[in-house]
Every structure is written in structure tokens, then in C-alpha cells.
Amino acid sequence: MTDLSAPSAPVTTTPADVRVAGATTTTDDVIATVAGLAARDVPGVHDLGTRTQRALGTVGQLVPGPSWAGPPGVQVQVGEREALVEVSVVTELGCNAPEVAAHVRRAVTTALRDLVGLEVTAVDVEISDVTEVAGVVDVADVAGLAGSGRAT
């Protein structure tokens, strides 16, 4: 019988130069989730998806059973080593939408390359909505329209 109170032997690992056969497969849902998390972390991104997608995602979380595929507002087309990503974002009022989109592209591309090993061929970003963050921005101040009532 083994004495469980005795210190255990050190764990040995396989040397780095020894290769072990096998395959790693990452599902499209995981790739979409990684892309969505990367996009959501970009400053100026308030949320992902259209209003309908966000509402359906909320309802889906209340229904027992398997989770819905990936985050709302993120779709991926995945090949063997490359991916095309479409992301729908809600930006915060006062943020430059083209700059936010550029940061989303960089963040998604970097995350998928570094975490999943995919080459990203394109990240299409749709600005699906804009929201005011409570107490942060006044619409008239952002547009420089105080008192004018309308953009020209």
C-alpha cells in the first residue's frame, strides 16, 4: 500500500523537442466567442449585436438547455487556417465610430491570431446602434449643435 503522507515525486514533463501526435480543433462558436470578447473590450464599444440580436440573446439565456451559438452580433466563416469575421457593435455616443471600428479590427485579428492560431482575412464591422452612457455625454455637445436643433 502506498503511504499517502509521504511527499510525492516531482512531476516530470515531456521535453519541448518531443512531438506528440494529435489534432486540435476549435469550433466556430469558440472562434466567435473569442472575437466577441476581443471586440467588447475595445474602448467605445458598449455592446455587440443589433437590438433584436441582443433581445434574443437575453431570452436564450433564460431557456434551459444548450447555449446559443456564440455571442450576438458576431458571425464567422472559418477555413482550415483562416477566418472572416463580421461584428455588429453598439458604440458609445461621443466616440469616433470609424476609429472604434479600426480598433475592433485590430483587437479581433490579434486575439484570433494569438489565441487560436488563425489568420484573419477580414473583419467587417457594422455600427448597428449608438448609446449614450449615463452622465457622460450630451448629444448637442458632441455634434457641436447646441441651440441649432439640426445638423447641417
UniProtKB/TrEMBL annotation:
Pfam families: Asp23 (PF03780). Belongs to the asp23 family. This is Putative alkaline shock family protein YloU. It comes from Quadrisphaera granulorum.
